[in-house]
Amino acid sequence: MYIGTYTNGESKGIYRAQFNTKTGELTDFQLAAETENPSYITYSPNKAYIYAVGEGETGTVTSFKVLSNGLLEFINSVPSNGGAPCYVATNKTGNKAVVANYLGGNFSIYNINANGSLNEASQVFDHKTSGQVSHVHSAQFFKNNLFVADLGLNAVYQYSLNMDSNTYKLSSSSIVDIPEKSGPRHFSITKNGTFIYIINELGNSITAVKNKNGQFNLIDNYSTLADDYKDYSACADIHLSKNEQFLYGSNRGENSIVVFKRNKTDGTLKKIQNMSVHGDWPRNFTLDPTGQFLLVANKKSNNISVFKIDTTTGKLTFLHSVKAPSPVCLLF
Q1: Is the pLDDT at 164 greater than 80, yes or no?
Q2: Considering only CA atoms, which of 170, 103, 108, 179 is closest in space to residue 139?
Q3: pLDDT tens track for 17-38
Q4: Nearest to 116 by CA among 141, 90, 139
Q5: Domain span including residue 56
Q6: Which of 159, 182, 295, 307 could form a disulfide with 168 if both were Cys (CB 3.0 to 4.6 A apart)?
Q7: Number of alpha carbons in the 13 Å side-chain half-sphere of residue 239
Q8: CATH number of the structural domain spanning residue 263
Q9: Confidence band of 132 (pLDDT split at 50, 70, 90)
């Protein structure tokens, strides 16, 4: 497992660790690559390369080669074209990457070369307007579409690929109406593309959306917080279980992982658990490759918490926690 961090404290970059998929033990921490503020990292589809944003006023995105010993070898770095890049993703074929710039209010699309290196951005889409502040927070490719969550403009955008020019163009500036001041941050798409679940940072909610033949319809909005929690909180990350029967989201403030049981037919959700993350500020979390464990990166408490997933009920049981410097992104 690789760990993206903030480097304004003890951390020096991207770390690697060994994860035991039978016991849930996390061991053998090692610095894999020294780099500044790799706050979000992702694999190429073949896992031969890792791409990391460099979150700063003049943002970057960097390509690394994964070596046989698990360490990372620098390939090249290019500008993200906006401040505070906070998300990077690749398409299924691995020949394109997209980077979301939170402060830049824009996102950049890159062509990836056969050796894993990044070209300068081929397209930069600017969401900023004179009247509203854009904060692009995440973007994901799905088939010939690119979906982009803009927290500042309170919308999820849809872009489509023009096959002739190999470029993207805007299809919709809002696939569905999201309650005012919700702040869409991240989202998960079911494997068949029929359902999209958007986690809203400011609204502490999840917006469930159904896609029927390219038409998007709201299913409902669901609170991520426990019914008796009244203090400040802000959502961060969201993931579906491997079998897509359950949906997980992180709450920073309540410091919990919310668990929903999902109706696979109509896409509706039922909240079944709010589990303490045994730490502070769960910015990011992930499921291990077996789907039997969930790991949480607690930024402010400098630890990673490991939970066992009951694959029948979806509920979490806390196993243990290990120290890690400013962990904010976990990647298997």
Answers
A1: yes
A2: 108
A3: 999 999 999 999 999 999 999 9
A4: 90
A5: 39-331
A6: 159
A7: 20
A8: 2.130.10.10
A9: confident
**Span 43-87, pLDDT tens digits:** 999 999 999 999 987 899 999 999 999 999 999 999 999 999 999
Residue 31, domain member (yes or no): no
Asked if residue 19 belongs to a domain, the reply is: no
Q: How many CB atoms within 10 Å of residue 234?
A: 18
DSSP state of 204: T
Closest by Cα among 35, 5, 7 to 17 = 5
**Cβ atoms 154, 203 nearer than 8 A:** no
Q: Which pairing describes strands 282-287 and 269-276: parallel, antiparallel, or unpaired?
A: unpaired
238: closest CA among 167, 203, 286? Answer: 286
Contacts of 105 (CB under 8 A, 6+ apart): 82, 126, 127, 128, 133, 134, 135, 136, 152
Provide the CA 331 distance to its chain's centre, in angstroms.
10
Q: How many domains does the chain have?
A: 1
Residue 171 domain flag: yes
Total-model pTM: 0.98
166-200 per-residue burial string, b: 16 or more CB within 10 A, e: under 16 = eebeeebeebbebeeebbbbbbbbbeeeebbbbbb
Domain contains 48: yes
Give Cα 213 to chain centroid, integer Å.
26
pLDDT over 70 percentage in the chain: 100
For 17, the token pair is 């660790």
With b for 16 or more beta-carbon neighbours within 10 A and e for fewer, the 289-328 pattern comes to: eeebbbbbbbbebbbbbbbebeeeebbbeebebeebbbbb
